[in-house]
Amino acid sequence: MSEDAPTVPAGLPRGARLGVDVGMARIGLAASDPDGLVATPVETVPRVRDGQGATADVRRIVDEAVERFAAVVYVGLPRHLSGKEGAATADARAFADRLVTALAAARETTGEGPQVRLVDERMTTVSAHQQLRSAGRKTKKHRSVIDQAAAVIILQSALDAERAKGERAGELVEPRTVHDTHD
């Protein structure tokens, strides 16, 4: 192994990681290897708007997490360039809440399950567009993969942060209790 090869962070349990780019119409999904070294695109999932609970989009991500024995699902948190949060941020947080609840339900059936963590995703879609254009893909033709490319960038950034800090990246999303939902 070369000196420049990335290393698996000591102290972090093995397990694939998923990256999720939540958009208004589509959700990009990416995954890593069990050692968390490289992010690769998985698919684009149609977004279910105005849904509650475990809608088809949430169930698809849960299925992927269970199938891959994921340790973490990183959900991109779109902030304004200033760092302030807006409507898209609230939407991503709500989606992450639904996802963590569905994963907790799946965990009851399968045993252990992944954490859900929110990570800053400023500029990922712009970066994804630039990467696809530089690879020779036309804008109209790369719409179907732009969300996957953004998910790859979200996930690879989280993986790089894990290696640099030796701990999980982002903000942990805690499952809500019955008490939390009635406040």
Automatic annotation (TrEMBL):
Q: What is its main location?
A: cytoplasm
GO BP term (any one) = rRNA 5'-end processing
Q: What is its EC number?
A: 3.1.-.-
SMART domains named among the record's database cross-references? YqgFc
Localization per record: Cytoplasm
Q: GO molecular function: any one?
A: nuclease activity
The terms describing its cellular component in GO are: cytosol
Q: Which residues form the YqgF/RNase H-like domain?
A: 15-128
User: What CDD domains does the record tag this protein with?
Assistant: YqgF
Q: Which domain of life is it from?
A: Bacteria
Record keywords, A-Z: Cytoplasm, Hydrolase, Nuclease, Ribosome biogenesis
InterPro entries in alphabetical order? RNaseH-like_sf, YqgF, YqgF/RNaseH-like_dom, YqgF/RNaseH-like_dom_sf
Q: Which Pfam families match?
A: RuvX
What is the protein's known function?
Could be a nuclease involved in processing of the 5'-end of pre-16S rRNA.
Q: Record's family?
A: Belongs to the YqgF HJR family.
What protein does this entry describe?
A: Putative pre-16S rRNA nuclease
Q: Which organism is it from?
A: Promicromonospora citrea
